[in-house]
Design goal:
It is found in: Endoplasmic reticulum membrane. Helix content is 20%, strand content 33%. By secondary structure, it is α+β, with helices and mostly antiparallel strands. Strands 1, 2, 3, 4, 5, 6, 7, 9, 10 and 11 form a ten-stranded antiparallel sheet that branches.
Length: 221
């Protein structure tokens, strides 16, 4: 019975995430409701982003300068121009802010962007799935339930504003009820020959027009 009570208490922590807006440029909203009071604790969500989606570090730096979002990227150097099949996954540590009237509820939003994918066969879209985030706490008072929280290997401060080390703790929780899926438009592989032919034709036509204009209006010594 004790074991069941402990498991029930630990499962009280819930996390949800949503992809807002449409298209290649979205907002990732993460909300966490803790099963116990976390007064004085820093709360964060560790999100593993697959290669098909990324956070722009330059955009993130601008948002942090205006105190709109607080987050850390691992690694912090990201090729924002790379397509999905040449990119690597990254880890986003997103610091959450408490809600005004609910002391156990925390939330944060960060812009995310879809990468271009290879042309597919028989479908107009590629699916990029986001797994449920890991909930992390960093507390000064150290009053966390030992049966629910355990030390996490996260090498970052308790706040994006400080540089001093911090011990984070993770918990088992109910995952997001629905997996967040980003649908990315892709080209059809069957159209490759047509696209190549039209591209060559357009390139040749434009080059011819430029050459004709240069010959007509150019001044050659």
């Amino acid at each position: 019975c004790v074991t069941l009570d402990v498991q029930a208490a630990c499962r009280d922590t819930t996390v949800t995430q949503e992809l807002l807006k449409e298209g290649f440029h979205r907002d990732l909203l993460v909300k966490v409701e803790l099963g116990e009071d976390a007064g004085g604790c820093a709360v964060a969500a560790q999100v593993r982003l697959p290669p098909g989606i990324y956070v722009d570090p330059y955009e993130l730096a601008t948002l942090q300068q205006h105190n709109l979002t607080k987050a850390v990227l691992f690694p912090d150097v990201i090729d924002v121009e790379a397509p999905e099949y040449l990119a690597r996954g990254v880890v986003l540590l997103l610091f959450l802010e408490p809600e005004a009237r609910r002391s156990r509820c925390f939330r944060a939003t960060v812009p995310v962007h879809a990468r271009y994918h290879r042309p597919a066969e028989g479908t107009w879209e590629a699916l990029v799935a986001l797994g449920s985030p890991e909930v992390l706490l960093c507390c000064c008072h150290g009053h966390l339930s030992a049966e629910c929280w355990e030390p996490a290997e996260v090498d970052t401060p308790c706040s994006s504003d400080t540089t001093s080390p911090c011990q984070w703790y993770s918990t088992k929780h109910r995952p997001a009820s629905e997996e967040s899926v980003l649908r990315v438009p892709v080209g059809l592989r069957e159209h490759s020959s047509l696209v190549c032919a039209l591209t060559l034709l357009t390139t040749g036509l434009c080059s011819g027009l430029i050459l004709a204009a240069a010959c007509k209006y150019g001044h050659f010594s």
